Amino acid sequence: MAKEMIAMLLAGGQGSRLYALTQKLAKPAVPFGGKYRIIDFPLSNCVNSGIDTVGILTQYQPMVLNEYIGNGQPWDLDRLYGGVHVLPPYQKASGSDWYKGTANAIYQNIPFIERYDPQYVIILSGDQICKQDYSDFLRFHKEKGAEFSVAVMEVPWDEASRFGLMVADGDDRITEFQEKPKNPKSNLASMGIYIFNWDILKKYLIEDEADPNSENDFGNNIIPNLLKDGRKMYAYHFAGYWKDVGTISSLWEANMEVLDPEHSGIDIFDENWKIYSRNSGMTGHKIGSNAVVENSMITDGCRIDGSIKHSILFSGVRVEKGAKIEDAVVMGKTVIKAGAVVEHCIVAENVVIGENAVVGSMPKGEEHGVATIGSGITIGKGAKIGPNAMVNKNVEDGEEQW
């Protein structure tokens, strides 16, 4: 029973630019939007698009991610033939290797792909927030008679040099690829989402692996080699919401955009394209009689007795009387003690913010970054954490960090 298309999801990245948030956690497992993790988005896109076979390539800090994915049941991917499979590097007869690059990661899993004998393989990233219909992408790929297609988005010209860019003709056929060029010829930024004909992908993976000078990377090696050989390569224009949440500021911005779906373009309340996640199993949230909650997302298990404005609280957060939270992302099972102020920041899971402590606060109108508190940290009573601080260790009572 051959599959028409299977998905290979690259989820092994370290996410070093998220600093405190990914010291003990793979980037795709980072919580997002109140009740989700980043990986929920590509997995939900797969099942909503009719893709029932997904290989998830893990490497860095995989324990939480593996546990979260489990047998794939929350995404309807617990299938007898197909379903979701976690694919870490493993011991082989010829030795063992970490995944050396994105192309090498797929190369090492050729036997897995061949079990399903697919016509097409879609390569996905596990560190983006995106709602995309992959079946429409595949339709485009077939109509063009493509051997390789890449999803692209138009970006402002003054930002184009930050991206890998596809130069395409009037028929969307790719004629050139530029990797973060100083003088861009195009503003079509690659989203890092590819569809390959499997026979073509397999051929180029094997050739790439045999090249001792290759970086084993799609952007640096596979795509340039396809171009050099004149393969049928096309750019698929995507017009929906897409964000690479690889930095603290972009992760914070994307969470804030969840609170304004009409203007931001990301609607997690869309019944026609649900984003699925693993249930926390907690009770419903409770809002106290003296609490204030404005334009915020409060998820299951939260207990709120303070003031919450324009913020996202994940499951099991407790906010005590007199505490104030504004423009903040507060992850699961964190406790904000009485009188504490938490503003314009991301607070990771299992954190304790002590009484009357101040985290990230700054006079209105002043430019500043996003304060970040790492997982399991305790901020002492009356401590002050500046608006750009990155906290990875406990902070004593009254101590200041800027």
Secondary structure elements and pairings:
Elements: E1 5-10, E2 31-32, E3 36-37, H1 40-48, E4 53-57, H2 63-69, E5 83-86, H3 102-107, H4 110-114, E6 120-125, E7 128-130, H5 134-143, E8 148-154, E9 164-168, E10 174-179, E11 188-197, H6 198-209, H7 218-228, E12 233-237, E13 242-244, H8 248-258, H9 261-264, E14 286-287, E15 292-294, E16 297-298, E17 303-304, E18 307-309, E19 312-313, E20 318-319, E21 324-330, E22 335-336, E23 341-347, E24 352-353, E25 358-359, E26 371-373, E27 378-379, E28 384-385, E29 390-391, E30 400-401
Parallel strand pairs: 1-4, 1-6, 4-5, 8-12, 14-17, 15-18, 16-19, 17-20, 18-21, 19-21, 20-22, 21-23, 22-24, 23-25, 23-26, 24-27, 25-28, 26-29, 28-30
Antiparallel strand pairs: 2-3, 6-11, 7-13, 8-11, 9-10
How would you explain this protein's 3D organization?
There is one protein chain. This protein is an alpha/beta fold and 402 residues long. Helix content is 19%, strand content 28%. It contains nine helices and 30 strands. Strands 15, 16, 18, 19, 21, 23, 25, 26, 28, 29 and 30 form an eleven-stranded parallel sheet that branches. The longest helix is centred in the middle third of the chain and has 12 residues, at 198-209.
Give a summary of the structure in a few sentences:
With 402 residues, this protein is of the alpha/beta class. The chain is built from 9 helices and 30 strands. Helix content is 19%, strand content 28%.
